[in-house]
Structures
1.
Amino acid sequence: MGTDGVYARVHESSLRDFVDRFRDWMAASESDLAPLLPACADYDARVEKARRLRELLYEAGWGRIGWPEEAGGHGGTILHRAAMYDELFRAGWGGPTVFEHLEIVAPTLVRYADPEFTRAVLPTFLDGSESWAQGFSEPEAGSDLASLRTRAEFDGTDWIVNGAKIWTSWVKYARWCLALVRTGTPEERHRGLTMMAIDLRAPGVTARPIRQANGNDELGEVTFDGVRVPPHQIVGEVGGGWRASMYLLAHERGTLSWVRHLGFRENLKSSSKSMSENSDRQVGEAALQLLGVRSTAINLLAREASEQELGPDSAFNKLLTTRTEQTVYNALRDIDSARVAFPHDSDEDSILQQEYLFSRIVTIYGGSQQMQLMTIARHILGLGNA
Ligand SMILES: Cc1cc2nc3c(=O)[nH]c(=O)nc-3n(C[C@H](O)[C@H](O)[C@H](O)COP(=O)(O)OP(=O)(O)OC[C@H]3O[C@@H](n4cnc5c(N)ncnc54)[C@H](O)[C@@H]3O)c2cc1C
C-alpha cells in the first residue's frame, strides 16, 4: 500500500480500523521486520534496530501518522501513535529506544519551534536518520534547573553558546540537542532562560558518553565552546525557555509513560513461563500497577489528543510509572534471580539484567521523585506555597 493510501484514510477511519490496518501491514511486512529480531544485548545494535524500525514505518507511511501535516506528518493524533506502539510491542517487534525522545522532544518542536525549521527536521527524526537529545541538566543544576549556567550571547548574527550539560540521554547517537540556556542574568532565574536547537555537529561541540552500572553508555556529557546557533533555531521566545521546558517535561513525565509501560508489560509477560505459585502475589501486584499506569496514561493521551494542557498532573504519572517499573523488575528479579544476576546464557537475559539495573535510576530522570511529590503537594493538592 502506498503511503498516500495509508494516510489519506487516517482522518476518516476509527482507531479500531487504524489498528486493523496496521496489523495487516505488520503481517504483510514480516520479512522486512524479521531482521529486527532477536533483540541483542549489545546496546548499539539495539539502537540500530530501532533506527531501522523507524525507517520501515516511515517508508510505509505509518511513521508519519500522529504528526501534523504542516510539520511533515500525515495528520492524526497521539492516539494513533500510542496504538501503533502498543501493536508493535504486542507483536514482539520491539520498541523505540533512542526514538522515545520523539514523544518528549517533538511535541515541543511542533508547538514552539520555527515552523520551517520543524518542517525541515521532524521528517528526519521520524524516518530514523537523525535523533535528538535533551540538554537541560548541568553538573550543578538538576532539580534546581533555574540555576543553570550554560550561556548564550547574541553577536548580531548568531547566538554563541558556552557551557556544559550532563546526563544527556542518547547524546552519543544524536544529531541535535534541544537545550535550555541562560540568555538573561543569573538573578532572573527561570525568566532568563531560552530554549534552542543546537546542531551537535557544529564546531565547538564535544560529547562524551558516560558508562552506567548496566554497562551501557546511553547517558553522556556535552560541552559547548563558542558554538554558533542561528536565530531560527531558537525554540519559543528569547527568555521564554521555562515555558517551553515545562511543556516538554509534562510530556516526559506524562504521555511518555504510555511507551514505557509497554516494555515493562512485555517483559512481565515473557517471564511468566518461569513463575511459580510463590510469585503470584508479586506478579499480581506488578500487573495491577501496570493497569494503573495504562489507565492514567490513556487519560493524558486523550487530553493531548484534544489539545488540552497536560499540566502538573504529569508528575503523578511519572511517580506511578517509575514505581511500577521498579515493582515489575523487582518481581522479575525475585522470580528468577539467577537470570538477572548471572545472565551468561542469552541476549534475552542480558537485556533483562540491563533493564533491571536501569530501573534503579528511573526515579531520577525527568525530575527526581522528591520533586514530583513536591509538584503534587503544591500544584495539585494546594499545600505549602503554591
Ligand atoms: C537515566 C537518566 C536519564 C537522564 N536524562 C537526562 C536528559 O536526557 N537530559 C537532561 O537534561 N537530564 C537528564 N537526566 C538528569 C536528571 O534530570 C537529573 O539527574 C535530575 O533532575 C536530578 O538532578 P541532579 O542529578 O542534579 O540531583 P540533585 O538535584 O542534586 O538532587 C539530589 C537529591 O536531592 C533531592 N533534592 C534536590 N532538591 C530538593 C528539594 N528542593 N527538596 C527535596 N529534595 C531535593 C533530589 O530529589 C535528589 O534525591 C537524566 C537522569 C537520569 C538518571
2.
Amino acid sequence: MSENNVIGIDNSLPWHLSGDLKRFKAITTGHQIVMGRKTYESIGKPLPNRVNFVLTRNSDLKIDGVHVISSLNDISDSDKKTFIIGGGEIYSQLIDSCDELLVTKIHREIHGDAFFPMIDASVWSLVDQSEKLNENDIEFSYLTYRKI
Ligand SMILES: NC(=O)c1ccc[n+]([C@@H]2O[C@H](COP(=O)([O-])OP(=O)(O)OC[C@H]3O[C@@H](n4cnc5c(N)ncnc54)[C@H](OP(=O)(O)O)[C@@H]3O)[C@@H](O)[C@H]2O)c1
C-alpha cells in the first residue's frame, strides 16, 4: 500500500514491482490464499501451486481451479497456512482475524479507489522493517506487524 493506504485503482494494481511480486509468490506458494471476487477478476486465473479461495455473495459463481466460498467458515484443509490477499473490502473485514500483516509500503502518496484499512497501533506492533528498496524509481519497504 501507498502512504495514503491505496492498494488499487480501476481493479488493478497502481504500480508494478517485480521484486514485490516475486516475494508474494515465494511467501504464498504451497499455502492457501483467500481473495475477493474483484481481486480474482483482476488476476484473471487461479494462482498456481496454491489453494485458491474466492469470496463472493453470488451463489451461482463457479470457477475452474478455485474454491468459490461465501464465508471464511467454508475454508477446508485448515492444516495449511492461510493468506488473505485482498482486496480492500476483504482486508477490511478480515484484518481482525489475522495474526500477522505482511505489508509492502510504497513511500509516496498514490491516487486510487481501493484501500488497506488503518493499522491500529494499539492492536498491531511493527516487528520487522526492511531497508528501503527502489525499483522503477519507486521507493518501498517490507513491513511485518504482529498482533499485540
Ligand atoms: N496492492 C495490493 O496488495 C492488492 C491486493 C489485492 C487487490 N488489490 C486491488 O484491490 C482492488 C480490489 O479490491 P476491492 O475492495 O474493490 O474488491 P475485493 O475485496 O477484491 O472483492 C470484493 C468482492 O468480494 C466479495 N465479498 C466481499 N465481502 C464479502 C463477504 N463478507 N462474503 C462474501 N463475499 C464477499 C463480493 O463479491 P461479489 O460482488 O461477487 O458478491 C465483493 O464485490 C483492485 O484494484 C486490486 O488490484 C491490491
